[in-house]
Each structure stands twice: as C-alpha cells, then as structure tokens.
Amino acid sequence: MPNELQEVKFYQTGTFTVGNRLLGENERAVQANMRRTNSLNSGHRACQGCGEALGARYAIDAAMRAANNQIIAVNATGCLEVFSTPYPESSWQIPWIHSLFGNAAAVASGVAAAMRVTGRTATRVIAQGGDGGTTDIGFGCLSGMFERNDDVLYICYDNEAYMNTGVQRSSATPPTARTATTMAVGKQPGNVFGTGKNVPLIAMAHYIPYVATASVANLRDLEFKVTKAMGIHGARYIHIHVPCPLGWGSAPADTIKLARLAVETGLFPLFEAEHGEITGRTKIRHRVPVADYLRLQKRFAHLFGTKPDEERLARIQANADRNIAKFGLLD
Ligand SMILES: Cc1ncc(C[n+]2csc(CCOP(=O)(O)OP(=O)(O)O)c2C)c(N)n1
Ligand code: SF4
After folding, report:
1. What is the structure's pLDDT at 291?
2. Which residues of the chain have pLDDT under 50?
3. What is the torsional sign of CA 217, 223, 224, 230?
4. Cα-to-centroid distance, 10 and ligand 1 (Å)
5. Would you give the end-to-end CA distance of the chain in angstroms?
6. Ligand 2 within 6 A of 238 CB?
7. pLDDT tens digits, residue range 110-123?
8. Distance (Å, whole) CA 311 – CA 331
9. How confident is the model at residue 3, as a pLDDT?
10. What pLDDT shows up at residue 31?
C-alpha cells in the first residue's frame, strides 16, 4: 500500500560523517578540509578534554578561511593564552598578541584602527578571552568597542569561572556551582542565585551588527556563525560555551556530552541576533531535565547525594524553562 512506502534517505550525504567527504566541497566543515590552517596547533598544554582549546581551534580556523588567512588575534590573559603560549613557545600559527587580562577589546580596537589608517583593510582583527576576562574585568573595554562599532570580532570562551588561576567565581558562574571562592559548606554551598549577567543580551542592547551564542556541542554551527561574523564589518560578538573538566569536575570524555546537555536543557540557548534583534535560534531536539546535566559535574555534587536539594534544583530548572520560553526553543 502506498502509505506504507517510505522514502529511502541516504543520511550520510546530508550529515557530517566520513569527514564530510560525501558533501560538496563548499559545504564541508572547515576542519574537514586538508587546507585548514591549524591556527592553534598541537603541542599546547591544555588539559585533556578542554572545551576551550577545541572551541578556539574551530573558531579561529573558520575565521582564517573566511578572511583569506589574514587575521590578527588579540588574546586576554587566561587559560587559552597560558596553555597556548608559555613564553618562548607558542602553538599559534597566526599573528597573535597577548593583551592584559582586562583590555583585549581595547587592544583589538587599536589594532583595527592601525590597519585602517595604514590601508591594510583586508587584515581582520579578532579579540578573544575567557568569561572572566570578558564579563568581569574586560567588560568596560568591550562595551566601548561595541559602542564605537569598532571592526573587531570578539569571541568569549565561557567555561563559567576563572579557570587559569584555580577556579574562582566569575559573573558567568551558574547558581549553586562550587568554586574556590563560593561557600564551601553550610546550608546552601556553591554560588548564589543572583540575577546573572547575560553578555550576549547586553551586546544586543548595543545594537551591534552581529551577536551569536555557540557551543562545542555543535561545531558545524560554530563554524557557520564565525564565518558569518567575518562577512560583516563593525563590532561583532560570539559567546561560546566550553566545558572545563578541571573546573567542573567532569570526565574529559564528557566534554561534548555536557555541552550538548547544556543546550538541550535550555540552560545555554543557541541564537543569533543582528542589530539588536534575534534572527535565529536552534530548537531543542530532545529536551532533558537540568539534573541530567548537573549530575555529571562534581561542582554540583552537593545538589544530589542522600538528600537531593530539590528546592535549588527546581530553581535551576525554572531558569532553563525561562530560557526555553524567552528564546522559543521548542516547537
Ligand atoms: C589585573 C589582573 N588581575 C588578575 C590577574 C590574574 N589572572 C590571570 S588569568 C585570570 C583568570 C582568567 O579567567 P577567565 O577569563 O575566565 O579565563 P579562563 O582561564 O577561565 O579561560 C586571572 C584572575 C591578571 N592577570 N591581571
Ligand atoms: S583548566 Fe579548563 S579551560 Fe583551562 S586548560 Fe584545563 S580544561 Fe581547559
């Protein structure tokens, strides 16, 4: 009977299997291409399973391809800078400058201005830093870069704490997470339930040309967003969620799984915005409760155990639900 017939789907041609070789050349991932630049080369000293190293490799290689290999990167102090560049060694295969912890955006604005006045407009500028360097100490410089609409793509690698110096809390640390500078014991150990500081939304409030969130769980989407950002001039901001096995107390092999769970719980929504308006979002395919994500991380271990902290788990779930409603993440 006709309605029992099913169309045969050749899934491999439309997916990212076998190194994308079944896709047309222009559709293949940057990393699937032999001519990728390997901008962040092997030999660096990141921990096993470091989401930040993975995110940076994909982001900068995609930016290099989009900018015809003409990039200068400015790097705030933090894990990415320290593990890639223990002087006099470096894993970077691109012109790369280490700024201070808090002024990567300002240094990048200066580099972009220098390119402009010397007529080297084909050379594009990227600034990058961790969540501490971005949402806390570098926030003023970043807002200035946005407000002047300087021609810089700023990438924040959000591992939700100051990892390089031993896991101190940042304004991107989620509520209840244990860090070296949050309550270790007591009735409610871990980070407080504040209001949160959502830098992608704050970036949007500057009406800059492009803002996006991305995740190492969806590297194809990450490459797409970086490529799109490089096709635009003016201030651009991409906020990438990058699990940190050391700071999160998670298994190195779980990095991608955790990044995916953060997206599928609604805790880390994936979206794009142009000139202050949301223009795209990635729908959640399999919604999961926040406990499935939190349970895999020792920084949240105190929420479980013999007597689970139902009250605070419910508050975290409510935050995820709020994101799902706000960004329209379910069909
Ligand atoms: C003015 C100043 N204060 C403190 C430090 C020490 N410091 C270096 S990196 C860092 C934390 C970086 O955290 P984050 O930006 O979140 O990046 P991550 O290491 O987590 O990737 C700190 C506190 C510094 N270099 N400069
Ligand atoms: S501490 Fe975290 S961010 Fe730093 S290198 Fe290790 S895994 Fe990566």
Report:
1. 98
2. 1
3. positive
4. 48
5. 31
6. no
7. 999 999 999 999 99
8. 28
9. 64
10. 87
50 lines ligand 2 (CB under 6 A): yes
Residue nearest to atom 9 of ligand 1 (CA): 78
96 Cβ closer than 6 Å to some ligand 2 atom? no
The rounded Å distance from CA 271 to ligand 1 centre is 27
User: Under 8 Å CB-to-CB from 101, ≥6 apart: which residues?
Assistant: 76, 77, 78, 132, 133, 137, 138
Say if CB 319 and CB 175 are below 8 A apart.
yes
Specify the DSSP element, H or E, that contains 310.
helix 310-327
- Which atom of ligand 2 has the smallest separation from the CA of 79? 4
Q: What pLDDT is attached to residue 8?
A: 66
Tens digit of pLDDT for each residue in 286-299? 999 999 999 999 99
Measured CA to CA, the distance from residue 259 to residue 221 in angstroms comes to 13
Distance CA 16, CA 27 (A): 10
Q: Whose CA is nearest to atom 13 of ligand 1?
A: 162
pTM (global) more than 0.85: yes
